[in-house]
Amino acid sequence: MPDPELLPPGRSIDSAVPSPDGIGGVMKRATERRRVKAASVGATAAASVAAVFAVIASGGANDALNTINPPAGKPPVTSTASGAPSAPSVPGAGVAIPPVESLVPRATVPPGIPPSTGPSPRASASSPAPRPNGEVGPPMQITSYDVTRQCDGSGPTVAQGWCSYYDGATTGRGGQAVQLAAALCRIPGQGTGKLEFASGMQLDFAVGRSSYPASWKWSTGHHFASTSPTVTVPEGKCARWYVTWKVVDDKGRPLAPGSYYLDARPRTTSETNVETQSSETFTVT
Question: What is the pTM of this model?
Fold first, then answer.
């Protein structure tokens, strides 16, 4: 009797029983249908494997992995050889797909060349800017001219359109910081003035007893540039230089109480009658 699954649609077993002479024909047709069904299943499995390899070859390993993941709720089968999850069989194909990890080639290092563990090469830093050939100073700021001050400092004279005066402390205690300052001001009505200097030392402070050498000079230990920029002073304004001094001598020892002369002398190239200018008196208490 023929297999019910092999009967054509709409036919029953009773109506499908052939005559003895037709048994061979029925069996031949059944065998042909089995062969067609097996070929269809094999083609489906081959197409699935080819699709996975095509995705991997184009860099889509992750997409391939997502394609062969099992349905939600069903954990992947663990390979007994490597312990890594392996891909389940393609539904309906009956053929297991190998794990995607095993299909992705890994980079190898040629023998005899150890892998690099150091940092990635970077562009070398640019060379530091060259240091200037000396300093310019002391520090200076532009301030307003005080018309109540006497022009009795060391520097350009009123005849040249300038007023210079000492503008810092005149007393202090040995070892304690004070500020020394001197101003060169452009007299109102004389227009803008320009100050030129022979070197980077634009002004120097000196303190001493009754005669030179000074007990302390600000310029001691400084290295000045061979040239200095021109200082422009608008009318009614002053160039004011200032330094901090701890009332010590050149060796850092606090000065003893008493009276000292204090020079605050600009080093401009336009100085006249400098020697006639009087020094300030600084008192150490």
Answer: 0.53
